[in-house]
Specification:
Blueprint: E1 2-6, E2 15-21, H1 29-36, E3 44-50, E4 58-62, E5 65-69, H2 71-74, E6 77-81
Antiparallel strand pairs: 1-6, 2-3, 2-6, 3-4, 4-5
């Protein structure tokens, strides 16, 4: 298990758990929106796919919902990578 990895660095198909969403400055609208979408501490997350050019956007699944995130947005989410059996 790796602690404190950014969601933007998660390997394809890997599962993880959200630790926190980091705000970039005061009143960070993007960080607030990520939390509203379910990126909160303790939630499981999985990287489903990467875009073809520069690996942007990332297709991320949290719960049963999938979101396309820019790498810069995913870099605001700190995760713990689940260990593989």
């Amino acid at each position: 298990m790796r602690i404190g990895v950014l969601l933007s660095e998660l390997a394809m198909g890997a599962s993880a758990t959200v630790i926190e969403v980091t705000d970039n400055g005061t009143n960070d609208v993007i960080a607030r929106r990520l939390r509203d979408l379910g990126f909160v501490a303790g939630e499981p997350v999985r990287l489903v796919a990467r875009g073809p050019l520069g690996a942007d956007p990332l297709l991320v699944q949290i719960g049963y919902t999938r979101f396309a995130l820019r790498r810069a947005e995913a870099a605001r989410v700190t995760i713990t990578v689940d260990s593989t059996p």
